[in-house]
Amino acid sequence: MTKKWILYSKEDRQVKWPTCINKLSPVKNKHPLEGESLAKLREAHTWMDTFDEIILSIRSVSILGKCSTAEYLECPNIPDHHRENARFYYREHPSKYFDKIGQYYWVDFDIITSDKLTMKLRMVVNGGDADCNDGYWGEVWQRNTGKPVAQILSTGDMETTVQTSSSELGKLVDFIIEIVLFCSWR
Question: Which of 96, 94, 78, 77 is nearest to 86 (CA)?
Fold first, then answer.
């Protein structure tokens, strides 16, 4: 009997994503950087001087779908006050609490770096709950490796902080969040 060895590079390894990604609900605007969606987004952001510059750095944005907060409780950046509320008010069924708090949008997008390399990224972002004084929260990973590259943190009343080692990536992630939430409300 001969053994076959299959070698994978780090870039080719299979990434295990949360199971909720296989059961996402569709979103009306799956590709917000195309056609009419792009025109409306451009119109909504005319105040932003760097809009054209930023758009050139982003190749595509595809909204994979959405799920309830209860379907992705493994997110490391769910604000602590939500976990405490679920534990205190819904001891028996905390998912009932999380079903009422925001929803996650799963997004794939590509960023072209200044040295013409393409970063293939996947993001999950939760719009939070305005009544709870939330900002957005979630995470961004490299699609091919699953390595986290940015943390999206709710840091106050309608306040969000994107933590990453690159300030340029942080600005682009912040902009992608705005694109996704802008297009998902339409």
Answer: 94
- From residue 14, how far is each of 3, 5, 139 by CA, in Å? 21, 16, 19
Region of residue 56 (left: phi > 0; alpha: psi -120 to 50; beta: else): alpha
Domain assignment of residue 4, yes or no: no
Question: Across the chain, where does the E strand assignment appear?
Answer: 58-68, 103-112, 118-126, 137-142, 148-156, 159-163
Residue 13 resides in a domain: no
- Within 10 angstroms of residue 178's Cβ, the number of other Cβ atoms is 15
Structural domain total, the chain: 1
* Residue 7 falls inside a structural domain: no
Residue 178: enclosing H or E segment and its boundaries? helix 167-185
The whole model's pTM is what? 0.78
Cα 51 vs. chain centroid, distance in angstroms?
20
Domain containing 27 equals: 20-185
Q: What angle do CA 162, 165, 169 make, to 5 degrees?
A: 60
Q: To the nearest 10°, the Cα dihedral for 93, 96, 97, 103?
A: 140
CA quadruple 56, 59, 65, 68: dihedral sign: negative
pLDDT digits (tens, 9 = 90+) for 30-76: 766 665 655 665 665 555 555 555 555 777 788 899 999 889 989 99
